[in-house]
Amino acid sequence: MKSPIYLDHAATSPTHPDVVDAMMPYFYEQFGNPSSIHQAGRKARKALDDAREQLAGLFGARYDEVVFTSGGTEADNLAIFGTARQLQGEGNHVITTVTEHHAVLHAFEALEPVGFDVTYLDVDDKGLIDLGELKSAIQEDTILVSIMYGNNETGAIQPIHEIGTLLGERGIRFHTDAVQAAGLQPIAFSELPVDLMTISAHKMNGPKGIGALFVKKGVVLDAQLTGGEQEKKRRAGTENVPGAVGFSYAADLAVTTRAERSQTYDACRFVMLDIFYKQGMDIHVNSRAQDTLPHILNVSFKDVNVETLLMNLDMEGVQVSSGSACTAGSVDPSHVLSAMFDDEAIANSAIRISFGLGNTKEEAATAAERICQVVNRLKANT
Questions:
Q1: Which partner from 100, 101, 322, 368 sits 20 to 30 angstroms from 150, CA to CA?
Q2: Among 265, 332, 204, 185, which residue's Cα sits nearest to residue 7?
Q3: What is the pLDDT of residue 344?
Q4: CA 38 to CA 61: how far, in whole Å?
Q5: Domain 17-256 and domain 258-380 have a common topology
Q6: Phi-psi sector, 274: left (phi>0), alpha (psi -120 to 50), beta
Q7: Positions marked active-site
Q8: Residues 153/323, Cβ–Cβ less than 8 Å
Q9: 251-278 per-position pLDDT tens digit
Q10: pLDDT in tens, 72-114
């Protein structure tokens, strides 16, 4: 059995051992409910407050702008549904892109049956929107635009500052899903022209089950959960104290090691592409070197079925993914790549390689060699 090489960090990342250590006391020693007024509750509240303050500082936000959620999906939903319902008296037109994460895309689709008019912006072959098309799409009753910071399949980085400036001049609320970008891009929420921003712990070596929505001071949302008055009445439910502690610790590690990790991921990317080209592989690189998150490499191997490729790579110990959705045992083409390219063969033969904690150039080289062997074998058998 060949040693496994995990290259699917964009899907989820291993929790850093130091993060686990930081969380442990809040499971069995300082386990109080942060809403309780006794000593155990006060200790839990202090841990939660400290985590919120640290997370805010790391991403250039105010302490009271951080809303803890159960993850990126809930944060996206809170931003979209919370804004739509809060501002529906002012308009019913909203805008997003065809390449969003499904947590955003499906939320916008759910708004259509309840009276909202949704514009889905197309992207070019780099995965980027056209600012002119966005400007043309804006209507008098446009109340919300949601465009992701960096794409989870290709890593394409949208021109968030330009988009935000355009929308700010028109008083339109702007949300960005920064789940993949946080910890890998220098983000200062106070300087970013966005009203709402989503991040998630498990993409930056933190625990699963916790995320955050950053909400600019003065922005009001309709809460999506009813119950208690936690998170300043924006998100009901007993707060996940161990998760918040782990989240802030992981974010600190991610931000302070960002430059070093980006350099490592760039090197891994270069090594893999170099081997692919030297081995004469017939590939189409769907992640551009510029304006792309450093940890994501999306490549299509022409004339190779992606489902078969993924299964064979797994047997060889190479753990990667496609950007596709598995439905009833079949793999549907990636909606992101289908939007970027007219050639269906590109979407049908693409894998996403994503680097993270523990990956080295040597591992990348070994994985690339195994990928070449598998692809050549599959082609020989067709």
A1: 368
A2: 265
A3: 87
A4: 30
A5: no
A6: alpha
A7: 326
A8: yes
A9: 999 999 999 999 999 999 999 999 999 9
A10: 999 999 999 999 999 999 999 999 999 999 999 999 999 999 9
Q: Please give the pLDDT value at position 103.
A: 97
How far is Cα 25 from Cα 18, in angstroms, rounded to an integer?
A: 13
pTM of the predicted structure, to 2 decimals: 0.95
Of all residues in the chain, the percent with pLDDT exceeding 90 is: 92
Superfamily of domain 258-380: Aspartate Aminotransferase, domain 1 (3.90.1150.10)
> Could you tell me the residue ranges of all domains in the chain?
17-256, 258-380
Above 60 in pLDDT, residue 325?
no
Query: Which of residues 326 and 262 earns the better pLDDT score?
Result: 262
